[in-house]
Amino acid sequence: KKIAVFASGNGSNFQAILDQVKLGAVDAEIGFVFCDKLKAGVIERAKSANIPVFSFVQKDFENKAQFEEEILTHLRDHQIDFVILAGYMRLIGDTLLQAYENKIVNIHPSLLPAFPGKDAIGQAYRAGVKVTGVTVHYVDAGMDTGPIIAQQAVEVAYGDTEDMIAEKIHKVEHLLYPKVIQELVSK
Ligand code: GRF
């Protein structure tokens, strides 16, 4: 199977997936990375792994549909089976949702439906929860609302700073996401 990874930032989840692909633990090919920013850590990570990168910004298109048509052209050219969102900071629109129905997944750093949207780790920290975690879910038109595929809890210890929680969360993400992707592609 072929996957495309969509990311907007650092790309540590992309890196974790790539590492497991290289090890053969994820039985998929990463066809390309799409980044909706012209500068982002993920672009350098993909380039140094010789994975094609497309980066363009939505505001250079007339509307979201046209922006997504351009993405769709690349998905079709590369015969992509699954779209993996990894820190992609944009809602997916009808164009992609219809073309890739039940084939788009996302990872979110909280136990959804708690703390959807931006800064989920900060939201959890400020709420003072003692358990938060990571969710992998199918993507629908909402913000972090699609059917849940997998979740893993992360405990917040007394005295944990926001950075300490973030570190624990990211460690879990980097293990959980490749595992879920492997299940997805091997179905
Ligand atoms: C992760 O915490 C992910 O759950 C969220 O965005 C962050 C991306 O981090 N959706 P990275 O770019 O993969 O390092």
UniProtKB/TrEMBL annotation:
Pathway: Purine metabolism; IMP biosynthesis via de novo pathway; N(2)-formyl-N(1)-(5-phospho-D-ribosyl)glycinamide from N(1)-(5-phospho-D-ribosyl)glycinamide (10-formyl THF route): step 1/1. InterPro entries: Formyl_transf_N (IPR002376), Formyl_transf_N_sf (IPR036477), GART (IPR004607), GART_AS (IPR001555). N(1)-(5-phospho-beta-D-ribosyl)glycinamide binds at residues 11-13. Coiled coil: none annotated. The record marks 144 as: Raises pKa of active site His. It catalyses: N(1)-(5-phospho-beta-D-ribosyl)glycinamide + (6R)-10-formyltetrahydrofolate = N(2)-formyl-N(1)-(5-phospho-beta-D-ribosyl)glycinamide + (6S)-5,6,7,8-tetrahydrofolate + H(+). Residues 1-181 form the Formyl transferase N-terminal domain. Its EC number is 2.1.2.2. GO terms for molecular function: phosphoribosylglycinamide formyltransferase activity. PROSITE patterns: GART. Keywords: Purine biosynthesis, Transferase. (6R)-10-formyltetrahydrofolate binds at residues 64, 89-92, 106. It comes from the Bacteria. It is an enzyme of class 2 (transferase). The active site is at 108 (proton donor). Belongs to the GART family. Catalyzes the transfer of a formyl group from 10-formyltetrahydrofolate to 5-phospho-ribosyl-glycinamide (GAR), producing 5-phospho-ribosyl-N-formylglycinamide (FGAR) and tetrahydrofolate. PANTHER family: PHOSPHORIBOSYLGLYCINAMIDE FORMYLTRANSFERASE. NCBIfam families: PurN. This is Phosphoribosylglycinamide formyltransferase. The lineage of its organism: Bacteria, Bacillati, Bacillota, Bacilli, Bacillales.
